[in-house]
TrEMBL record:
It comes from Cinclus mexicanus (American dipper). Coiled coil: none annotated. The gene is Mkrn2os. Residues 2-112 form the MKRN2 opposite strand protein-like C-terminal domain. PANTHER family: MKRN2 OPPOSITE STRAND PROTEIN. This is MKROS protein.
């Protein structure tokens, strides 16, 4: 994927086009929500400029990057007339399923990396069956 990652820390909101190659991308927008995708970037930019995300407002435990992400998701949900998510709901619904999947993938990758296994790509006709 190409794009910009917004993150919030003690220095405020940052926008980065690189340096996040090892992160997990979690899809938040359902496939049929094309109109929301069209406005996503401008909504996020507008949101990131709010006073709540100034550097002096940062607090490591209670007002951090997780808070930033959840508050943005809830702003979008509110605008669509959806119920707001608690920290626990956000974690359970969006974060845990993807981190579990990544953990399983990394475990398999590590096991394969330490064994004498050679992976051969399937021929095109075998992939189609």
């Amino acid at each position: 994927f190409a794009g910009v990652v917004y993150n919030y820390d003690q220095e405020g909101v940052h926008r980065a086009g690189s340096g996040w190659e090892q992160c997990i991308s979690i899809p938040l927008v359902q496939p049929g929500m094309w109109e929301l995708l069209q406005h996503w970037d401008s909504l996020l930019e507008e949101f990131s400029l709010e006073e709540a995300w100034l550097p002096n407002r940062y607090e490591e435990q209670q007002h951090n990057c997780f808070t930033f992400a959840l508050a943005f998701v809830n702003r979008v949900r509110q605008g669509r007339g959806q119920e707001l998510l608690s920290k626990a709901q956000f974690t359970e619904s969006f974060l845990l399923p993807h981190t579990r999947e990544a953990s399983r993938y990394l475990t398999v990758h590590q096991q394969l990396a330490h064994t004498d296994v050679y992976i051969v790509p399937l021929a095109e006709q075998e992939q189609d069956s």
